[in-house]
């Protein structure tokens, strides 16, 4: 077994994850990495459901699993608590909404040793969070470029590739001494910010072939909207903190929302703006329907119809969140430390 001598710390933030966490932990227990060279730190945001009981039962059966408390309840705080308690030479960040193939940890460790990358990850395989047409449509929409972008990790690679980011990731411990830990101002986007900071300091992020994490998407539109609103809300703060210019992919949803709002609000005063807003709206609706048809037609009319709602939920939630974040953090200058302290970790 390559890298068997290297001690690995797996950090899993969670809160109210009774639906998924048993399967996530079971997949890690079933892995091929030697358990005497492994620890799994489940950092719980004071769950009120059965999550803590489930983790405690796993910990009673498997001594390498430990339950830690996260009083702040947010993901970056959980990650930093885990890092502070970790004993490993490698730190692997995982998610309670996912399951992992048996060779997940051993493959990440082997690729990291082979390439000396500062972060190593695999692809994302998005699964429905339920058995309803809407849940299936959400999983499909999150895997479509029109829905959520075209990052390489969403589709996988056939050869190792240096990329901007990977889902979760495997880091040598030295990375956290080098560039610091996760930014606790960010309820969402903390992984993106950390990877952007890593690359800004010359770090390298590797996406490896043949390794995929099964990720369970949110099962309904309200949960999806809440998550993507938060993603959008914190994106301007990330850019402000790092002094980086966002790409067109990140800017398209807020530009869409802003353009439609201007056309709607000012169209009666300036007809040309109203006409422009209507054309933008019509173009978007056509793109939405066409994309839903191509992505969902093989899964039936119910999933296809739901997809016409999933795409706008992704775009408008993210766009509204982005504009609110732009107002709060860039225009008004809201202190970053007061942003989102009361938002839940994972729901």
Question: Any overview of this molecule?
Answer:
Helix 10 packs across helix 12 (301-332). The radius of gyration is 21 Å and the shape is globular. By secondary structure, it is α/β, with parallel strands linked by helices. It folds into two domains: 8-219, Alpha-Beta Complex (Spore Coat Polysaccharide Biosynthesis Protein SpsA, Chain A); 236-338, no CATH class. Helix content is 50%, strand content 15%. The chain has helices spanning 21-29, 51-61, 75-85, 104-115, 133-142, 145-148, 174-179, 190-200, 221-242, 248-266, 271-296, 301-332; strands spanning 8-14, 38-44, 65-69, 90-93, 98-99, 119-127, 161-162, 169-172, 205-216. Strand 2, helix 2 and strand 3 (65-69) form a beta-alpha-beta unit. The chain has twelve helices and nine strands. It starts with 7 loop residues before the first strand and ends in a 15-residue tail after the last helix. The chain has a five-stranded mixed beta sheet, with helices on both faces.
């Amino acid at each position: 077994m390559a890298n068997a001598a290297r001690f690995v710390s797996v950090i899993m933030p969670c809160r109210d994850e009774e639906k998924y966490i048993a399967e996530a932990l079971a997949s890690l227990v079933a892995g091929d990495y030697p358990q005497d060279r492994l620890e799994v730190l489940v950092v719980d945001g004071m769950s009120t459901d059965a999550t803590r009981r489930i983790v405690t039962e796993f910990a009673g059966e498997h001594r390498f699993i430990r339950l830690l408390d996260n009083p702040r309840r947010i993901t970056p705080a959980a990650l930093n608590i885990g890092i502070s308690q970790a004993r490993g030479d490698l730190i692997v960040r995982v998610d309670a909404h996912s399951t992992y193939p048996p060779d997940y940890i051993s493959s990440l460790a082997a690729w990291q040793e082979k390439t000396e990358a500062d972060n190593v990850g695999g692809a994302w395989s998005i699964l429905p969070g339920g058995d309803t047409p809407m849940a299936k449509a959400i999983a499909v929409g999150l895997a479509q470029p029109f829905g959520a972008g075209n990052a390489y990790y969403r589709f996988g690679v056939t050869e190792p590739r240096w990329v901007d980011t990977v889902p979760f990731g495997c880091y040598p411990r030295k990375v956290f001494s080098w560039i610091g830990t996760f930014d606790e101002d960010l309820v969402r986007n903390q992984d993106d910010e950390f990877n952007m900071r890593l690359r800004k300091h010359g770090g390298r992020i590797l996406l490896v072939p043949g390794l995929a994490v099964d990720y369970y998407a949110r099962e309904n539109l309200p949960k999806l909207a809440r998550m993507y609103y938060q993603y959008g809300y914190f994106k301007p703060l990330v850019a402000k903190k790092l002094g980086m210019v966002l790409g067109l992919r990140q800017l398209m949803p807020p530009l869409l929302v802003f353009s439609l709002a201007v056309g709607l609000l000012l169209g009666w005063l300036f007809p040309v703006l109203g006409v422009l807003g209507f054309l933008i709206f019509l173009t978007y609706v056509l793109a939405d329907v066409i994309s839903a048809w191509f992505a969902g037609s093989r899964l039936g009319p119910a999933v296809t119809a739901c997809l016409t709602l999933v795409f706008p939920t992704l775009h408008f939630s993210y766009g509204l969140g982005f504009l609110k974040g732009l107002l709060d953090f860039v225009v008004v200058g809201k202190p970053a430390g007061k942003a989102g302290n009361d938002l839940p970790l994972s729901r």
